[in-house]
Specification:
- InterPro entries: Phosphoglycerate_kinase (IPR001576), Phosphoglycerate_kinase_CS (IPR015911), Phosphoglycerate_kinase_N (IPR015824), Phosphoglycerate_kinase_sf (IPR036043).
- It is built from 15 helices and 17 strands.
- Strand 16 (about 355-360), helix 13 and strand 17 form a beta-alpha-beta unit.
- The model has no long low-confidence stretch (mean pLDDT about 95).
- The chain is about 40% helix and about 15% strand.
- It is globular, with a radius of gyration of 22 Å.
- The termini are close together.
- Helix 1 packs across helix 2, helix 8 (about 205-215) runs parallel beside helix 10 and helix 9 packs across helix 10.
- The chain has helices at about 35-50, 75-85, 95-105, 120-125, 125-140, 160-165, 175-190, 205-215, 230-235, 250-265, 305-315, 340-350, 360-370, 385-390, 400-405; strands at about 15-20, 25, 30, 50-55, 85-90, 110-115, 145-150, 170-175, 195-200, 225, 270, 275-280, 290, 300-305, 320-325, 355-360, 380.
- The chain has about 400 residues and is of the alpha/beta class.
- The protein binds adenosine-5'-diphosphate and 1,3-bisphosphoglyceric acid.
- Adenosine-5'-diphosphate binds next to strand 14 and helix 13.
- The site of adenosine-5'-diphosphate has 20 residues, from strand 14 and helix 13.
């Protein structure tokens, strides 16, 4: 993979930087700016070298049309503070506003364009539709334009800005992608055992799919701890009542297969034994600890319980390599933060024993910081959850493939 220095002299050239600025928001307030801080060095380097820097990124999952809830405007303001230089914000992505913002850039100046996913072409499964949107992005750059792929958290997406644009212009990997890949390479090629993977979060359908391949690359004696939103599909597959918890009804058979495959391959698949269940998705909805096998029909599980936290910690006690993606519960609300805190503490303990620990994912990284853990408590905090997982699965990641070509 070529990197920033391979771009040569960028002074006066328009460089499109694909960053992952998908930060958690409370209304318009950014609750964790980790991805902005992680993206800043590449943008600064290019600006210092005199490039005209055009940053593109997504926020949330809007449906291919503008949605004020997902505007990148607050991100532009924070990016400017982090960079310590002005950031011109364009209120569209490839329209008149974007063209004007790019034309207005002098050497060493930075613009951020509006959310890529306000355009249906960005995420389209149709090659031609995605290609047309990629062409529109490339048209912003002029003849000597270049592309820097630095949005590690999105490299697993076959999206126009990730996969199609680099096929059309000179392209290199940014410093963040370079650094992330280096750590994950170490995790996969020099895996000291015991090796434990902890999965949680809310992107349940994405992550259930991951388990399939993960079981293929994990070895006998490795452990897979399952918390977060996906655990209920496992409990249900085992025949337990899960009340109103998150459930992928159509994945029950698949998950039954995972349980069986884990058993056959000797990978220990560990599920929670107790759950913090509430009457509604709210902090004050009477949270109670209930057995994992008996979640009341009128309640939903919002965290793993204290016994499960201790169980997971015990499974991590002798780990030499740990990868964790996805909070154990709805950590944003204190009554449901205990499971995530317990796992974070177990990883921190493993780090101090000399294990290689990696936390991946926008929300997982935000969670450990929100719960007061120092970044040095972990070997590496990755900006990508799904991206890291797919890398660990041994999959070809479209965004890396395009950068390597
Ligand atoms: N039991 C649960 N029910 C609903 N949401 C959950 C549950 N457990 C965790 N979550 C939510 O998962 C979200 C993070 O999931 P995800 O985006 O998959 O993680 P990451 O960004 O680290 O990859 C958090 O906002 C958290 O509130
Ligand atoms: O937040 C992200 O991924 P993650 O939650 O797996 O870390 C990335 O920005 C990708 O977003 P997406 O999962 O909506 O494509």
């Amino acid at each position: 993979m070529k990197t920033l220095n391979d771009l040569g002299d960028v002074r006066g050239r328009t460089v499109l930087v694909r960053s992952d600025l998908n930060v958690p928001l409370d209304g318009t307030r950014i609750t964790d700016d980790g991805r902005i801080r992680a993206s800043a060095p590449t943008i600064s380097t290019l600006a210092e070298r005199g490039a005209r820097v055009v940053v593109v990124a997504h926020l949330g999952r809007p449906k291919g049309a503008p949605d004020p809830k997902y505007t990148l405007a607050p991100v532009a303001a924070r990016l400017s503070e982090v960079l310590g230089r002005p950031v011109a914000f364009a209120t569209d992505t490839v329209g008149q506003e974007a063209r004007a913002a790019v034309e207005g850039l002098g050497e060493g100046e930075v613009a951020l364009l509006e959310n890529l996913r306000f355009n249906a072409g960005e995420t389209s499964k149709d090659d031609a539709e995605r290609g047309a949107f990629a062409d529109a992005l490339v048209a912003l750059l002029g003849a000597d334009g270049a592309y820097v792929g630095d949005g590690f958290g999105a490299v697993h997406r076959k999206h126009a800005s990730v996969y199609d644009v680099p096929q059309r212009v000179p392209h290199v990997a940014g410093g963040l992608v370079e650094a992330e890949v280096e750590v994950l390479k170490r995790l996969t090629t020099q895996t000291e055992r015991p090796y434990v993977v902890v999965l949680g979060g809310s992107k349940v359908s994405d992550k259930l799919g991951v388990i399939d391949n993960l079981l293929g690359v994990m070895q006998s004696g490795d452990k897979l701890l399952v918390g977060g939103g996906m655990l209920f599909t496992f409990l249900k597959a085992q025949g337990h009542e899960v009340g109103k918890s998150l459930l992928e009804e159509d994945q029950l058979e698949t998950v039954t297969g995972y349980l069986q495959r884990a058993q056959e391959s000797g990978v220990e698949l560990v599920l929670p034994v107790d759950i913090v269940a509430a009457t509604a998705f709210a902090a004050d909805a009477d949270p109670q600890v209930v057995p994992a096998q008996a979640i009341p029909a009128d309640r939903l599980g919002l965290d793993i319980g204290p016994e499960s936290g201790a169980l997971f910690a015990s499974k991590l006690a002798d780990a030499r390599t740990v990868f964790w993606n996805g909070p154990m519960g709805v950590f944003e609300m204190e009554p449901y933060a205990g499971g995530t805190r317990a796992v974070a503490q177990a990883l921190a303990d493993a780090t101090s024993r000399g294990a290689l620990t990696v936390v991946g994912g926008g929300d997982s990284a935000a969670a450990v910081r929100a719960l007061g853990f120092d970044e040095s408590s972990f070997g590496h905090i990755s900006t990508g959850g799904g991206a890291s997982l797919e890398y660990l699965e041994g999959k070809t990641l479209p965004g890396l493939q395009a950068l390597e070509a």
